[in-house]
Structures are given as C-alpha cells and as structure tokens.
Amino acid sequence: NRYSGNAEEENWLAIGDQLSIADSYNTDLDNITVTVDIDGTVVLPELGAVRVAGLTRTGVEALLMEKYSPYYDRLDIKVKITTRNKKYYVFGETSTQGEVDFPGDLTLFQAVTRAGPKDETANLGRVRLIRADPKDPFVQTYDLGDMISHGYSTFNVQVQENDIIYVPPSMMAEIGYFLDTLFFPVKQVLTGLASAIFSLSFFTGTGNFANASSIF
Hints:
- The protein has helices spanning 57-68, 108-115, 144-150, 171-182, 184-205, 209-215; strands spanning 18-23, 32-35, 41-44, 48-51, 77-82, 87-92, 98-101, 106-107, 127-131, 138-142, 158-159, 164-167.
- By secondary structure, the protein is α+β, with helices and mostly antiparallel strands.
- The protein has a five-stranded mixed beta sheet with strand order 7-6-12-9-10, with helices on one face.
- Helix 5 runs antiparallel to helix 6.
- The relative contact order is 0.12.
C-alpha cells in the first residue's frame, strides 16, 4: 500500500476518501468537497490536480496554503478528512470474512464480536493480530476468552487500519476438519454410488430398467 499511516494518531488521506475544504476569507475556496482519485490526486480550483494521498490533515492544510498563496492575499484554509476507504481484515472461524470497513476507535474484542465468531468452532483464546510488513511484521496472539471469563481487558488492544485478525478453530474443530479432509475421497465415492443407486431405482420403478442398463 503506497499510502499508509495511523489514523488513530492523525487521520490521513487514502484513495476514495473525501476531502472537505473551508476558507473564512475566500468564498470560492469555501465549502469544497472532493474525492481522492485512483491516482492519489484531487482536482481543485485554480490548481487543477493536486497529489494529496498519504498526507495528514495538517499536511494538506500546509500544502494548500503554499499553493494558493500566489492567488490570494489572505488565507485561512481548514480541511476535514472523511474516511471512505480504510479497511481491516478478518479470517478464520467467523461469520464475516475478508475486508471490513475501519471505523476508527476499534478494539480487538469489538472487531471479533462484529465478525460473529462461531460458537462451536472459534478458539477465542488464540486470536491472532497481524500487522503485515515486508521487513518488520507484527504478529501477536491474544486471549479474548480470558476477558469473557474473568473480565481482564489486558489483551483488548486497539485495531489499526490494514490489520489482519485471524480467529483459529478450536482443537475439536481442527480434528473435525482433519477427518473431513481425510475422508473426503471416500465421501465423494459414496456420494457417487448413492446417486447411481438412486438413478437405477428410478428407472426400475418406471419400467425403463432395460434402457437404463444400456446407459450404464
């Protein structure tokens, strides 16, 4: 991801986010709302395309003050970022899988709860939080089950945008999945035999067994 940051510390612009601009001195710069395009730019009056993706609120304000200074004597540019395209990801034994909108101010417990952990198979004692990085990835396992059982919130950390949350299966679920994989070929054969027997019974019942035998 070329445009990254920590929106919990100071929000930053991603592709698809909305940028609102206000200026108390200049009406033509007031109440402007634009969306960050796929190339990381927004189109603004007088300036045209301006690259803003990856910048924080204060960074955009400083950039626009600089770029608009040749056109106006007085400037008081304030910007607001409306998040549209920040995500985190959930996988494993949950009802919700894959990409989820990141609302901000989100704890690990809230994220897992929203994803709908499966009662029979989810292992909340081994929830994994992953912050992928090509050089220094962060991977940590948290016991959310202890929080539910005893109320300890030590492991209820804050989720950041682009975090990956993995809810693993319980030991019994892993055994069940292993057996299901082990006997999958047998199940396929039995399913095929059952289908063939049903077909034979159907043709026999309708008096077309002779034709059916020629088919098989």
